[in-house]
Specification:
Helix content: over 70%
Oligomer: single chain
Distance between the termini: 35 Å
Radius of gyration: 18 Å
Length: 171
């Protein structure tokens, strides 16, 4: 986990510069990646807790919207991609704060950031077992949309992730 935090810190350091380079070079072929909030050393244990609660609520609401879609509206874009964006937004919101567990000079912040990381892990376990999300992805897969390689693999890995969590087994 510590190696992952180091990689995240490096990415946080170079992503803004890389995005500026792409813009300056005039490459409009691929959109610049979303850049996470900058690392802030001003967090307190209370602000980290609030960040976790707010980010978790946004993620839960976004996934609830996906699960609430009527079956005819469930497509790859409205389910799998929408879920991916929701998870991405969540991690981009908390990743810099979680990194503080390794680098914060404040001894009270480090355990709070570690707790945020553990809460995020626990939340992913719970969300990975949501039958309504699994059903939404299955409904989208049943449409048989023509997907390119990366999208097809994303759909397959999303289904497999739910199934590895025990969904889809005979009851």
């Amino acid at each position: 986990m510590k190696a992952l935090r180091v990689i995240a810190a490096l990415w946080l350091a170079v992503a803004p510069a890389a995005a500026q380079f792409r813009t300056a070079a005039g490459s409009a072929a691929s959109p610049a990646p979303r850049v996470a909030a900058p690392l802030a050393f001003t967090h307190s244990p209370q602000t980290l807790n609030a960040l976790g609660v707010q980010s978790g609520a946004r993620l839960t609401a976004a996934l609830g919207s996906v699960a609430a879609l009527p079956v005819p509206q469930r497509t790859f874009a409205t389910t799998v991609k929408a879920m991916g964006r929701a998870y991405g937004d969540y991690y981009e919101a908390i990743r810099p704060a979680v990194f503080l567990a390794s680098v914060s000079p404040d001894p009270a912040v480090r355990p709070a950031a570690e707790a945020l990381d553990k809460e995020a892990d626990a939340m992913m376990v719970v969300l990975g077992q949501r039958e309504d999300l699994y059903q939404a992805v299955k409904d989208a897969a049943a449409k048989g949309e023509a997907l390119d390689g990366p999208d097809r693999r994303l759909l397959e890995s999303t289904l497999r992730g739910f199934e590895h969590s025990g969904l889809g087994l005979d009851q």
